[in-house]
Every structure is written in C-alpha cells, then in structure tokens.
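Quick one before lunch.
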Amino acid sequence: MRHWPNDRIDLRSDTVTQPTPSMRKAMANAPVGDDVYGEDPTVLELERRVAAMCGMESALFLPSGTMANAVAVRTHTRPGDEIILEREAHIYLYEGGGFAALSGCSVAFVDGDRGRMAPEHVRAAIRKAEGSGSHFPDGRLICIENTSNRGGGSCYALEDLDAIAAVGRDTGCALHVDGARLMNAVVATGTPAERLLQGWDSVAICLSKGLGAPMGSMLVGGAAFIARSHRWRKMFGGGMRQVGIVAAAGLHALDHHVERMADDHARARRIAEALEQHPRGVVDLGGVETNMVYFGVEGWTGQETLEHLASHGIDVLTLNEGTCRMVLHLHVTDEDVHQVLSAISAIP
Ligand SMILES: Cc1ncc(COP(=O)(O)O)c(C=O)c1O
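Model of the pyridoxal-5'-phosphate complex:
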C-alpha cells in the first residue's frame, strides 16, 4: 500500500519504502533524550530489544548499514589485518572501500554460491602472518551476508552458519554477519535470529530496507565489543542526539513489518514463476528465496528490459549487460503484482 501520490510500481530496491502513517505517528510520539549521553529512552529500548532478539548482550543504533559494517570491521580488526569476504559482498563492492580506508584491511576473496561461502572455502582463504616469514597479513575477521544481496536474496543454511562459526573459532577469526536483511532470512527459513546468530560475534541489521524505517541500523554483539564500537561510532561521526524519533520507527517496524515479509517473498516467487514460464524469461527460480528476483529477457539487454517494464509503470534496476533486479517490499500490493505479471506476458 502506498500512502503518497505515486503511480509507479517501484521495484528498484526495498530501500525506497516510506514510513507509513502509523509509523510516523509512533515517531511523533516518541520520548527522546541525548543519545550521545546515553539518555534517549527510545533508543535504549530499541537497543535492548534487538540485543535480546539476537541472543547477544548489547546493541548500538547507527545511521546506516554501511556505518554499522564499518564500525564492526574497525572494532574487530587492526590495520594490516585481512577480512575473509565473498567476492560480491556488499562490504567489498558497495561501501566505498571503507574496509581499506577506515580500517586498513585487505580482503581475501571466496567465490560463493549465490553469495554464500562454503565453510571449507572460508577455511582455505584464511592466511596468518605467523609461519609465513611475515609475508601474509593476518586473516582475523570472517564476514558473511545473510541474506546475500548480490546472491539474489539467498539465505545461508544453518549447518553452514554453524560450520563457518566453528572455522572462526578454530582459526582465531572474529565472526560478523552483514545482516542488512537478516529478518528476511528469519522469515524465509522460520529460524529465530538468535539461532541464526549462535556462535557469531556480531551482526549489523538494517531497519531501513524490508523493515520500512526511514533510516537506521543496529550493530549487535557482546558488551565489550559494543563498548569499543561506541567509541568508533563517535569517531566516524555517527553519534546522534534526540534520535529516538527515528528509533521509534525501528520499534514500530519490529512490531508490524516482520511477519508481513512472507508476503514479499510469496510475491517475488509469483513474479519469478511467471518469468520462468515466459519463453524468453531467464530466471533462476531456485535462487528466489526471499524478496529479490534477478532476471533477464533472452535477446534483450538489461536496459531494454528496464525500458519495457518502465513503459508499463514498473521501475527496476539493471545490474549488468543482461540482468535486472526486482525487489519486493511493503508498498507492493497484489494488484501491483498483477500489473507486473501482465507486463511480463506483454514481452513479445
Ligand atoms: C547487504 C547490505 N549490506 C549493507 C548495506 C548498507 O546499508 P545502507 O544503505 O544503510 O548503508 C546494504 C544496502 O543496500 C546491503 O544491501
């Protein structure tokens, strides 16, 4: 449901959501204080709630997912350390090289399956200075993305999460989850966040994507880790004052926008099935696990596909030569999905 004048169906990203009227009301009524002094009751409530949800000791409210990941990397590592990342990880591709500029880290790449790293490949990618005649950096942090954005919204299997956590423990590496869309994984797999994160040191969760808040991310972890992250947040300029007005949107989202993500996932699936049935549709149906559909149209460039859909009032993103992306979110209705299905059947 859209609450503002707009005749477009915007499927470019789940970041395009706008606060609903009831979310705006919760924001307007939120008690606030100076959060840099630790005195904003709404932020404190959100931090307590998200820490409990993750089965971890503490949480920290930050302006963005990029900053939450940057603070996590900075807190877990020292300059000269190496991070183990899937080749198309958001932290590597889309965060401005912050891991290098802000933390002085290099990256060891692992090729993934739809964005997910296999535990044995993670283990093989970890290098240590010791025993290398000082040739290698110290692999000290493993970061995964759950769900994986470039992996098409794929979810990690629980046994792989546990096995990668065991690799981290065996090799002295810290373990961080870029969980920008962790709640999509929770809903899609039916596994509570606490279990998905068992054995992991930290997670960054975005409130601004499928959850529909206008901004904000949570960094969650042990009390000592969060205390050190608090200082890096300040240094990175992420200490905010009466920000309970925004934290209230996060609390509202956790109350009202989690279970409904199952609708986004079902709608993504319907669209993907229609694409698969179209003679020119190119889609990996098995890869559509949550709210994203990566697809193409045989014989068309991504731009041609985008233009066809745009002429039917539907906005998507092109990712490369032939591939486009649709992302389902809380403003997309069943009628919108019908319009998408007719635009697909209108592909000649
Ligand atoms: C997997 C992933 N991590 C982190 C981020 C960064 O979030 P933000 O845009 O709030 O900085 C995004 C944003 O799309 C993302 O998809």
